C-alpha cells in the first residue's frame, strides 16, 4: 500500500503545527483508472480516510479508519510530482471531510483533469464545476439505499456520471426504474457494474442488451488486472 511517502513535502509532525488546511489521507498512488469514462488512463488516486456508509460490498474498508494528516498544498504537490494528467479523489467518502472541496478546487487550478468518486449520500452542489462527479447511487442490495441523496440527481451534467453497483435482478430492475424516472440517460453517463460474487458480468450484460437499456456496462479494470491488491 502506498501510504504517505517518507519523502513527502510534509511529515505528520510538521502537519500538527501547520496552520494550513489539512485532510486525513489513507493513500496516494498512481495506477490505471479502472472504471468510469477515464478507464484505462494512468491516474493518481488520492484516497481520503473515513466514510459514514457501510455498503455490504465495500472493497476499501481499510480506509474507514487511520490515515495521516496532510496539508492540502502538500497533497497537490505530491499529485503533480506523479507526472500524469488525471487525478481521482476517492475514499472512503471524500466529501465527509469538508475541506475536500478545497483540494478539488486546487487540483483543478493546477491544471489536472479531476474526478471525484462519491457515494451519493452527501451534497455535491458545492463541488468545483470543473470536476467530473462520479456519483454511486446505492441499490437495495448495497444495504445503504436509504442514504441516497436524490436531490443530487438533477444537478448532474454531461460532465458527470452516475454509477449503479448491481447485486441481483432486484437491483437491476430498481436501477432501471431510477434511470427512467429521473431521466438519467438524458442528463449524464449512466454506468452499471456487477457486484463481484453476487451476479456474473455476463448476466448483467445480457439484461442490459435484452432491454436495450441506454447505460454503459463496465467492469473494474483494476480488479481484472490486480485483483483486490491495495494501492493498485
From TrEMBL:
S-adenosyl-L-methionine binds at residues 57-59, 92. Pfam families: Radical_SAM (PF04055). The keyword Transcription does not apply. Its cofactor is S-adenosyl-L-methionine; [4Fe-4S] cluster; Mg(2+). GO terms for molecular function: 4 iron, 4 sulfur cluster binding; carbon-nitrogen lyase activity; magnesium ion binding; S-adenosyl-L-methionine binding. Substrate binds at residues 32-34, 47, 90. Its EC number is 4.3.99.3. Transmembrane segments: none annotated. [4Fe-4S] cluster binds at residues 51, 55, 58. Binds 1 S-adenosyl-L-methionine per subunit. Keywords: 4Fe-4S, Iron, Iron-sulfur, Lyase, Magnesium, Metal-binding, Queuosine biosynthesis, S-adenosyl-L-methionine. The keyword Iron-sulfur applies. Mg(2+) binds at residue 60. It catalyses: 6-carboxy-5,6,7,8-tetrahydropterin + H(+) = 7-carboxy-7-carbaguanine + NH4(+). Residues 38-232 form the Radical SAM core domain. GO terms for biological process: tRNA queuosine(34) biosynthetic process. Pathway: Purine metabolism; 7-cyano-7-deazaguanine biosynthesis. Belongs to the radical SAM superfamily. 7-carboxy-7-deazaguanine synthase family. Catalyzes the complex heterocyclic radical-mediated conversion of 6-carboxy-5,6,7,8-tetrahydropterin (CPH4) to 7-carboxy-7-deazaguanine (CDG), a step common to the biosynthetic pathways of all 7-deazapurine-containing compounds. PANTHER family: 7-CARBOXY-7-DEAZAGUANINE SYNTHASE (PTHR42836). Homodimer. This is 7-carboxy-7-deazaguanine synthase. The gene is queE.
